[in-house]
Specification:
The structure holds 2 protein chains of 2 kinds. By secondary structure, chain A is of the alpha+beta class. In chain A, 15% of the residues lie in helices and 28% in strands. About 15% of the residues of chain B have low confidence. Classes of the chains: A alpha+beta, B alpha+beta. Chains A and B meet through loops of A and loops of B.
Chain lengths: 170, 634
């Protein structure tokens, strides 16, 4: 059975947050090289009750993630993101807004600016093209920075979802 | 070739005395031989550039000097106002004047009687030297019974009966033709373990050599103040350097005995370093008197710390800055006697040798180079190790550095005529292999494993190595991929691919390499594509792309970070299941030639490092600067 791109290259982890109608789960796909692709988990409230994403903004009063600039092999200059830093604000079709917060401490490498011009991408493909940011934890810190996150099977069990068979394959 | 020594001596003597350029130097020869220079050094200061002469044995050279001395003296007895006489009077008066200012070191070999007197009766003192020169040919012209000046005393005996060594070359040139020295050098070069025909030799002299050269020069200026040839402030360019003379002697000797030829930029590099503890402080006085020398704290410290390693540049600069008077006052003019001969050390290495070829990889679990993750080794071996193992043992080198024209992932095969690679071999002992021997090496590597295969193995020149990495961006590569599509496809859906030529795509640095490559968007070109349908959801996709294109990312899109990607073009999701590199379109290294050039590969002209021109330019600039400074002082 073919493993998807995400299943092949990433370890899927999650931050469980909230219950019922106010689930604010976030996924952290940890690549085998340590980089983390962070996005909104499908269980998140913004995908429930027929909501559609209308606007994504990476800016708040304090900073604008879109200004992030990194240079060189070591991606110097990236903004430091604490474990609960602001990532973006999402406005939905029913006028509700949600603030998505970070869950892994590290340096910001890249934001998915396509979401600014094409917010539906977040609703359509939250796991792949609709990712939010790519972040790089400090090299020594990778396992520690992600230790508090839940692995895929635990996430599924907590949210009453079936665990994909591929999770148990090598 | 048994020319009798006496005949040879006569022949050289006659030739020299007929040489108009040399004749003014004849008294110099005698003078220098008298104060303690070996014969070769005496000839050096006459700026004599007869290479064969220096290679003659000491007894010949000593004999020539003797003969010349005889000839000169025979003319001086006839002519009372001859040059030699004038020379002697001048020297005595000079020494009388300077003796008051000098301290004990001065050992001018003028008659001791005149040194302490204050120019009282110059006319009287002239008689004594002249008689000594005319009468006694066995002793040096101006030497008293002072035992500290030596050499050339009894000429008839062969070298090394004296207890002292040449004050100018510290025995280096003096012993250059002795059996001891020649066998020592020859044995060392025979037993290096390296294979070579051309050699480059750097020679490092003790710093005292330069100081003493100046000392003798100033002495000659004093002794022959009217001679044109010593008017130059410095001996540079007016005197044959010890290094040069030594190379004149070594060159033919090594060529004759070992069939080795000297060539700049040769593969084999030898470095001879001469050391002489006895005189390693000879230059120290310069630091104290060179006012223009602004020693930075560090320099001053170094100046004291390791005397034998004080840089030639600082010393030569000081020598140029210091006046002759100051030198004579604070230094030794002429130089002090030398009790021990200089010793030498020979180190050598071989320039890098390059081997090239092409490799195929038949398996999907072998990395190109050793894979180390978090200090642990992943995978048993690699393409690199499978190749270098055999090469290292054949060439007997310290290290084999692998580089290739790009690389493929561990799970990607390298098919077709392979990927070009090259190895830089560090310090290879064996370098001469025939066309057949290279084929043997290939067979050894290929039969040892089913994982890889190499071909076109050959030696290449350093200049040729540029071709591997040259024009990387323009190179094209061909691939075959097995692609899964989320929707069912037929020929109708795919036909447009065949018409797409030079499709431009933009690839952000793939996440899988983003940890070690900078974040950037790279424009790449897919030159052409074709396909074969396997079933409704699977095709084989052939692509010909620009070098540096990430094929996997083009197919699956890498989270939309490669655009357009194959999925977007097909209007569905796509993923890559398998990838093979079909060809790397680089003409390197080319089909090996079965000829003699390959076997006795001599890369000397190509090997001459580009830097050598830079160094020469720098040296010339320095010399110019030095000369300008000297001229300003004048």
């Amino acid at each position: 059975m073919r493993k998807t791109l995400v299943e092949r290259y990433y370890e899927q982890k999650f931050r469980l947050d909230g219950e019922g109608n106010e689930i604010q789960d976030v996924f952290v796909n940890v690549h085998s090289n340590g980089l983390c692709v962070i996005g909104v988990a499908e269980t998140h409230a913004i995908f429930q009750n027929g909501r559609k994403v209308v606007q994504v903004s990476f800016e708040n009063d304090k900073k604008n993630l879109a200004d992030n600039k990194v240079s060189g092999k070591f991606k110097k200059g990236g903004m430091w993101m604490a474990e609960d830093s602001f990532i973006c604000e999402v406005k939905c079709s029913d006028d509700s807004t949600y603030i998505i917060k970070n869950s892994v401490r590290g340096f910001l490498i890249e934001i998915n600016e396509k979401l600014i011009t094409d917010p539906q991408l977040l609703s359509l493909k939250p796991k792949t093209e609709g990712y939010l940011i790519i972040l790089g934890p400090k090299k020594q810190d990778i396992s520690e920075a992600t230790a508090h996150l839940s692995p895929l099977d635990k996430f599924c069990q907590s949210r009453n979802l079936p665990v994909p068979a591929s999770f148990y394959e090598a | 070739m048994a020319e009798e020594p006496t005949k040879k001596i006569k022949r050289y003597t006659e030739a020299l005395l007929l040489n108009k350029a040399f004749l003014p130097h004849a008294p110099t020869l005698v003078e220098l031989a008298g104060i303690g220079c070996c014969s070769r050094c005496a000839f050096r200061f006459s700026n004599l550039r007869n290479i064969n002469l220096y290679s003659e044995k000491n007894e010949i050279l000593d004999g020539v000097i003797e003969e010349i001395k005889k000839q000169i003296n025979s003319t001086t007895t006839d002519n009372a106002s001859s040059e030699a006489m004038v020379v002697d009077t001048a020297s005595t008066t000079d020494s009388a004047n300077t003796s008051t200012t000098s301290s004990t070191p001065i050992t001018t070999s003028t008659p001791t009687t005149s040194t302490t007197s204050t120019t009282s009766t110059p006319s009287d003192s002239t008689t004594t030297p002249t008689t000594s020169t005319t009468s006694d040919s066995a002793t040096s012209s101006t030497a008293p019974s002072d035992s500290t000046t030596a050499t050339t005393a009894p000429i008839s005996t062969v070298e090394k009966t004296t207890t002292n060594y040449c004050i100018a070359c510290l025995g280096i040139l003096q012993n250059a033709t002795t059996n001891e020295f020649t066998t020592s050098i020859i044995d060392k070069l025979k037993n290096t373990g390296y294979q070579f025909r051309y050699y480059a030799l750097t020679i490092t002299m003790p710093t005292a050599i330069m100081v003493r050269q100046y000392s003798i020069w100033y002495h000659l200026q004093q002794k022959f103040p009217d001679k044109e040839q010593y008017k130059n402030k410095t001996p540079d360019d007016a005197v044959v350097e010890v290094k040069e003379a030594l190379k004149w002697i070594l060159g033919p000797m090594l060529a004759f005995r070992l069939n080795l030829t000297f060539k700049n930029g040769a593969d084999f590099r030898g470095a001879i370093t001469f050391k002489h503890e006895e005189t390693q402080e000879d230059h120290v006085f310069l630091a104290q008197i060179d006012e223009s020398a602004k020693p930075r704290k560090i320099k001053k410290h170094h100046w004291r710390a390791d005397l034998s390693m004080d840089s030639i540049t600082t010393i030569s600069r000081s020598l140029r800055n210091v006046t002759a008077e100051k030198f004579r006052k604070f230094g030794y003019c002429p130089p002090k006697p030398v009790k021990n001969a200089a010793t030498y050390e020979l180190v050598y290495d071989h320039l890098s040798v390059w081997i090239a070829g092409r490799y195929n990889k038949w398996v999907r679990d072998l990395s190109q180079t050793p894979w180390i993750l978090h200090n642990t080794r992943k995978g048993e071996t690699s393409v690199e190790e499978l190749i270098t193992g055999v090469i290292k043992s054949e060439f007997q080198c310290d290290e084999a550095r692998f580089s290739a024209s790009g690389r493929e992932d561990i799970d990607v095969r390298m098919l077709g005529n392979g990927r070009p690679f090259m190895l830089e071999l560090i310090n290879a002992k064996r370098v001469y292999f025939s066309y057949e021997q290279y084929r043997d090496m290939e067979r050894r590597i290929n039969s040892a494993t089913h994982c890889i295969q190499i071909s076109m193995l050959q030696r290449i020149s350093k200049a040729h190595t540029n071709k591997l990495k040259e024009g990387e961006e323009e190179k094209r590569k061909s691939y075959k991929a097995v692609v899964w599509l989320s929707k069912k496809v037929t020929d109708k859906d795919l036909a447009f691919l065949k018409d797409l030529k030079d499709l431009e795509i933009e690839q952000r640095t793939p996440v899988r390499v983003l940890h070690r490559r900078s974040l950037a968007t790279r424009k790449k070109i897919i030159h052409s594509m074709s396909y074969e349908i396997i079933n409704e959801n699977h095709i084989v996709l052939d692509l010909r792309t620009q070098a540096g294109t990430y094929i996997k990312e083009f197919v699956h899109g890498d989270l939309g970070r490669t655009l357009p990607n194959f999925g977007v073009m097909m209007g569905c999701e796509a993923d890559i299941l398998q990838l093979d590199v079909m060809s790397v379109e680089v003409d390197f290294p080319g089909v090996p030639q079965a000829n003699r050039h390959q076997q006795f590969f001599d890369d000397t002209s190509a090997n001459a490092p580009k830097n050598s021109n830079k160094k020469k330019k720098k040296k010339k600039k320095k010399e110019k600067r030095g000369k300008k400074r000297d001229e300003k002082k004048k």
